[in-house]
Design goal:
This protein is mainly beta. The chain has helices at 2-13, 68-76, and strands at residues 18-29, 35-50, 54-65, 78-85, 88-95, 110-118, 122-137, 141-155, 159-173, 177-191, 195-209, 213-226, 234-238, 243-248, 253-258, 265-268, 272-277, 283-288, 294-299, 304-309. The N and C termini lie far apart (70 Å). Residues 1-17 and 314-320 have low confidence and may be disordered.
Amino acid sequence: MRIRLIILLLLSSITLWANHSREVSREFVVGAQPTLDIELSQGEMEFVTGPEGVVTVRVVQSLSHENDAQANQAFDDWKFDFSQKGDSVVFRGANRHNLVWDWNPVRAMQCTVTITLPRSSGVAIKGRQLRVSLDRIDGDLSVRMDAGSLFAKRVGGDVSVKTLDGQLTFSSIGGRADLNLQTGQILIGRTEGPLEVNSNGGVLEVQQVTDTVKVSGETLDVILGLANPLKGKVNVSSALGSIVLKVENTANVTIDAAAPWLGAVKTRGLELEILSGRIGSSRLNATLNGGGPLVTLRARGGTVSIIGMEPLGTVSLLDR
């Protein structure tokens, strides 16, 4: 009898939650080089490469809650605007409760925006808390967000990102890249234009750079691979982080490396001509294969490691 009473009490306390969803979509006819101006306060955004001449924006809101009226009210709290000016498609999505703290769990809904766009497009994104995935575009990419993540397979044009806390991943960038973070993780396969990174902390890894590089950070750890030939100067500075430089053993570069406070400059797998300093000390100036573009490395509170590797070749992802 006691066991039956306990079971009945448990069953009576169970609340049945229902899944609610709402969907809206728009389609736009565009020209040869469209641009997308996207602003979403929070949520997930997926950009998928589609046929030329058409842009499609699809918004799906989903929520689990036991009260239908409250769920519908939560959907109504969001406002979506779609517009077009020439070849520019504009989308805005915002929650009017976004700036007001609300303990009501009904506010915690999932908002997913899927955008199908031509490969020739350029994209500008703004938001607070975003998760963005991008297929391939030939135009420029601009991202401004407070926090979140960005994964892009291929951006053929320039890239500009500014965020307080983010995780950025690019397979390749064809133009200039300007990345500004307070802290976060950055992983890039290959850059084919100038690269500039400013980050107070986190990790930066670029597997292959081909042009000018400027990196500065406070507690930033850097792993950098140099393509051969290298087109411009490289300058990497981290106050309390460490630097790992990977160099093809056939490259022509001049290296100025220092770890003045607590670290040392170490090398492996390279036949360097030492101009001043020595391997294992706090400073090393040397040339590789007669010298070339200047590579300046400063890890004031960490270690500089310079590692030789077999040539990777001139791999290009422009047409992939």
